[in-house]
TrEMBL record:
Annotated InterPro entries: T2SS-T3SS_pil_N
Residue intervals of the Pilus formation protein N-terminal domain: 29-99
Keywords of this entry: Signal
Keyword Signal: yes
N-terminal signal peptide: 1-28
Domain of life (superkingdom): Bacteria
Protein name: Pilus formation protein N terminal region
């Protein structure tokens, strides 16, 4: 073997190992944390062919174009999301964890039952109902003001 063919062989082997490394990174499981009713943008390395969401009550995927998707948090919990190209090769393989929003969020206890409230000028429960508990309860009033900087 001469020096020229040895150099070419080393280049081919390096390229092969680089391709193997890229393939393993593309299929490596990822973890994505998204707040409920929020989304996260994912840029794909290739054109999406199929989208699989294990639990559509937890997360949803909106395809913007062939290489851009948004994962939307719909309900609390975990769901697997897999996006493949036309040949079935994984472009995204991850666990989506949907959590509560922490911006302006407080926990209000009624007896021993906790209720998550999101507050701005009024408080709304995670279930969607509004509450004016802060106006009548000094403890809730102080908690809301401390958590949000807003006096209800």
């Amino acid at each position: 073997m001469n020096i020229k063919s040895t150099g070419m062989m080393a280049l081919v082997l390096a390229a092969a190992f680089l391709c193997l490394g890229m393939a393993s990174n593309a299929s490596a499981a990822q973890r994505l944390v998204v707040e409920k009713n929020h989304s996260a943008r994912i840029s794909l390395s290739g054109a999406a062919g199929s989208v699989i969401v294990a639990n559509p009550d937890i997360a949803d995927v909106n395809v913007i174009d062939s290489r851009t998707v948004y994962i939307v948090g719909k309900g609390f919990g975990n769901s697997s999301v897999i996006i493949t190209d036309q040949m079935g090769r994984p472009l995204f393989d991850g666990e989506v964890v949907v959590t509560a929003s922490q911006k302006g969020a407080i926990t209000v206890y009624k007896g021993l039952t906790p209720s998550l409230m999101v507050c701005s000028t009024i408080c709304t429960s995670e279930e969607g109902g509004s509450s004016n508990a802060g106006a009548t309860s000094p403890v809730a009033f102080g908690t809301i003001a401390a958590a949000t900087g807003v006096t209800p």
